[in-house]
Design goal:
Elements (H helix, E strand, L loop, with lengths): L4 E5 L4 E5 L2 E6 L3 E5 L5 E5 L8 E10 L3 E9 L4 E8 L13 E4 L5 E5 L1
Antiparallel strand pairs: 1-4, 2-3, 2-10, 4-5, 5-9, 6-7, 7-8, 8-9
InterPro entries: DUF427, DUF427_sf
Protein name: DUF427 domain-containing protein
Organism: Sulfitobacter albidus
């Protein structure tokens, strides 16, 4: 796999919270490890409350994964701009993450094993 990327099934049950609300829970999450970066948990789109997410025009390019599309998380009190990303058409070596969402952890967004 390119650039020391490994993708495995994330062991156990995972949740993502934003603004205190649970917006996703999954026992089918994937863990992507890339080089020396911390592992990233990717949630299946079907396990995330998409009503909280608004697509944005923001994109980034990764030479190993492809073009990432972004979503903002809309909570009762705030909008967290570009806090979620997804590879809609990932490169072949990382095709397993297609249809999955990753969240940027912050003071208001947490990704936890439960």
């Amino acid at each position: 796999m390119a650039a020391n990327i490994t993708i495995t099934k994330a062991a156990g049950q995972w949740s993502v919270r934003a603004g205190g609300a649970v917006i996703g829970e999954s026992s089918d999450a994937l863990e992507l490890t890339e080089g020396d970066y911390p592992p990233v948990i990717y949630f299946p789109r079907g396990d995330v409350a998409m009503a909280f997410l608004d697509p944005t025009d923001h994109t980034t390019e990764c030479p190993h994964k492809g073009t990432a599309s972004y979503f903002s998380i809309v909570t009762k009190s705030t909008t967290l701009q570009n806090a979620v990303w997804s590879y809609e058409d990932p490169k072949q070596d990382v095709a397993r993450i297609k249809g999955y969402l990753a969240f940027t952890p912050s003071d208001t967004v947490s990704v936890e094993k439960i």
